[in-house]
Amino acid sequence: MSAKVLIADDEQNILISLEFLMKREGYQVSVAHDGQEAIDAVAKDKPNLMLLDAMMPKKTGFEVCQEIRSNPDNADIIILMLTAKGRDTDMAKGLALGADAYMVKPFSTKELAQKVRELLGAAG
Amino acid sequence: MKKTDWRIIAGTTIVGVVCLIWLFVSGGLIWLALEESERAAAAVAIGPRIALLFLMWAVSLVAVWMVLGYLVRYFMTAPARLLENAQVLLGTDVKRSLVPDGSPENKKLTELINQLVEQREALREEMDQRVQEASRNTELEKNRLAALMSELTQSVVVCNLDGRILLYNNRARTQFRALSKAPSVAGGVELIGLGRSIYSVFDRKLVAHALENIQHRLQRGAAMPSAQFVTTTQAGQLLRVQMTPVRAVKIPEEGSDDAPLQTNEVTGFVLMLDNITRDFEEDSEKDRVLYSLTEGSRAAIANAQAAVEVLEYPDLEPEMRERLLCVVRDEIHSLGKRIEEMQTSSANSLRSRWPLEEMLGADLIEAAIRRIEASLPVKASTDQVDTSLWLKVESFSLLQALIHLAGKLQVECQVQTIQLRLQSNGQRACLDMLWSPLEEGTKAVIGWEMEQIKVGTETMSLTVQDVLTRHSGDSWVEREAETGRAFFRLLLPLATPQEELAAGTFLRSESRPEYYDFDLFKSSELSRSLDDSLLTELTYTVFDTEATGLNPAGGDETIQIGAVRIVNNKLLYHEFFEQLIDPKRTIPPETIPIHGITPEMVKGQPTIESVLPAFHTFAQETILVAHNAAFDLRCFQVKEKATGVVFDHPVLDTLLLSAVVHPNQESHRLEAIAERFNVTIIGRHTAMGDAMVTAEIFMKMIPLLAEKGIHTLGEARAAAQKTFYARLKY
């Protein structure tokens, strides 16, 4: 069975590409448009990996990350944070709050796909 | 007629008595040696002529009298006179030469004394000259200092350790005007003034914290320590303050060529103020612009890049292709628009942020522990602290943030003990506040960094996040898996470990004390009760009011207040308070010629409710002086409820004091007293004019009171109470 990937980003313009990309990689893809939607989606159908944007309305990616990690059941979800915040402090914060990897926008889609493959491969 | 010298009488008497005894003894002996017949013959021969014998005795006594008189005058009176004259010369500054008199020795002695007097005069003149020269130099230096300071574009305030203002420049005055809560009424003079407390503008804790920082650095041997802090004032302005200590100077021992040395003892401090409210607002705007340029563009580019990369797949549906092209067009368009926006607002250049100062991390931790324990029932201790770390921080707001977090932990999570940890993650310092949570998860504390900082009852306008953003840092809550402890992590910028790079940047010598009084450095004995304070040392607010009539309780209203200050026995002409007041009633036409205030003049002026509090602030910590003070104070008292201020200052009344100084004069009206003291009256019967006259006559009264043995405030008040006028009640 293929891995489940949840993409959480408020920008429709990137969702199109990411959704296409992940589907093409052969994953089961679902999307969320803000932080709260992302949390609800995780509760409903636990994904194997999350592409999580840091800046979203309602709840930021950091808050979503922290909230997901506060539930031990969700410990095995791989979280890959995508963010336009390029400062080292943001990166440190994301990783400290439980993200597994952190990619700064803009990124190459090939690298992203590669990273996702690696993360999923390592997990299982 | 000169009295006869007792020594002459005594001398003559003794000689007379001795002669008599000699005569009788010799006569007796001769008598005994004579035969009976010879005795008879001698009796016959001498008997009738015995009177001659006594006459000769008397005559010789007169000669003795005269000789003695001469000798006494010659050998005793002349030296005695010389002694008296010399004593006069010694005891006074009289310069005169003495007339030589008496014996040659006495004459020589007189000449010698004359020479000594001349020598003394020469020395004294030389000394006077030097003193004058020195004071001229001091005055010159003071004026030079004054000239330079008034030229400075930065506001400068110099305070002693009690926080009393010793000196300020014009720029500071205008700046304080902006800080005043009632700018139209008092224009800031109620805040800045010689001898006033700087703590009416700045939080005492803030100043103490900066001073403590400086002391620490001094102890570590820093050459030119200074501290900076940012504070919000009551009027909501943001001030950046740089503090530099005024250190005691050790005068080198006489004969050595060393320059005077600065010691580590701090006697006061210099504050340089910058109003950065506008900078701060511009800063926020810059941040927004910068953010939209960097992080906003990043997202847009990411969107476009992803779309372009997907477009490269050959097997794309036409519909999908169109959607992706749409994305690319859209993002490129929005980027172009953003750049355009930027250009229009690009007048902003990137500039000042908060002043961050370099601080040893361990010092910050130590200060935080002290502060937390002092303000909260929480025990704080250190965990691991890397003592080699130097931070670049604005320590006051950072400490406030830490206290805020610790306080929230204590109140909402019942945390009793916390630890502070400091380590480096390579690029930044991690300051952690650790605690052992009672329940699982850190959910309860999430979002605290977004709340406004609260310390005690004070709420700052900043959040913890704001403080960290200003440090280019960040904060979050984490859990340690091994120990189960939770912690707030604050990421802070590191500083290169060095101390005091730029020595000599402090322009101490450049300042125009347009407004200075260095004598205030000495008068820090505020602990003395005011009643024991010397009249010459106190700070006074001399004031006068004009009113619509003489019956404050019956509805008459104050329509003008004028006041000046006397500090250190000097009338400060530039620190005055003058304000018209709208009485909200008609001004009786018959009173207008007296005070010259027409209804048009008071229209639109502030009311008593806002003027009295401002005047109260102007007069705080001073002695109130007025002519017939009882009337003015009665006017204020009637308004206590409406204005909420009570004038409970010590009061001196020049009317009563005049009665103390000149008890035999008939009139103690202001004009009469002014005439007696030869004080020119300008603008009589305006509040300001009368206040000036009152101040001048009050200052002339102080020495006269001293002549009557009245030196202190307590004595003056007691004396005033005793005069007849004190029994009049209004």
TrEMBL record, chain A:
The record's Gene Ontology biological-process terms are: phosphorelay signal transduction system
Q: Which Pfam families match?
A: Response_reg (PF00072)
GO MF annotations for this entry?
DNA binding
UniProt entry keywords in alphabetical sequence: DNA-binding, Phosphoprotein, Transcription, Transcription regulation, Two-component regulatory system
- Please name the PROSITE patterns in this protein's record: RESPONSE_REGULATORY (PS50110)
SUPFAM superfamilies the record matches: CheY-like
Q: Which CDD domains match?
A: REC_OmpR
Q: At what positions is 4-aspartylphosphate found?
A: D53
Entry-linked InterPro entries = Bact_response_regulator, CheY-like_superfamily, Sig_transdc_resp-reg_receiver
Q: Which domain of life is it from?
A: Bacteria
Residue stretches making up the Response regulatory domain: 4-120
**Name the UniProt record assigns to this protein:** Response regulator receiver domain-containing protein
**Lineage from the top down?**
Bacteria, Pseudomonadati, Pseudomonadota, Gammaproteobacteria, Thiotrichales
From TrEMBL, chain B:
Instruction: Return the EC number.
Output: 2.7.7.7
- List, alphabetically, the GO terms of the cellular component aspect: cytosol
Q: Which GO molecular function, any one, fits this protein according to its record? A: DNA-directed DNA polymerase activity
Q: Which reactions appear under catalytic activity for this entry?
A: DNA(n) + a 2'-deoxyribonucleoside 5'-triphosphate = DNA(n+1) + diphosphate
**Keyword Cell division on entry:** no
UniProt keyword terms in alphabetical order: Coiled coil, Exonuclease, Hydrolase, Membrane, Nuclease, Transmembrane, Transmembrane helix
What processes does the entry annotate via GO biological process terms? Answer: DNA replication proofreading
Question: Is Transmembrane tagged as a keyword?
Answer: yes
What transmembrane ranges does the database entry give?
Answer: 12-34, 46-72
Would you say which domain of life the source belongs to? Bacteria
Per UniProt, subunit arrangement is:
DNA polymerase III contains a core (composed of alpha, epsilon and theta chains) that associates with a tau subunit. This core dimerizes to form the POLIII' complex. PolIII' associates with the gamma complex (composed of gamma, delta, delta', psi and chi chains) and with the beta chain to form the complete DNA polymerase III complex.
**Its biological purpose:** DNA polymerase III is a complex, multichain enzyme responsible for most of the replicative synthesis in bacteria. The epsilon subunit contain the editing function and is a proofreading 3'-5' exonuclease.
Can you name this protein? DNA-directed DNA polymerase
The organism is: Thiothrix eikelboomii
Q: What is the lineage of its organism?
A: Bacteria, Pseudomonadati, Pseudomonadota, Gammaproteobacteria, Thiotrichales
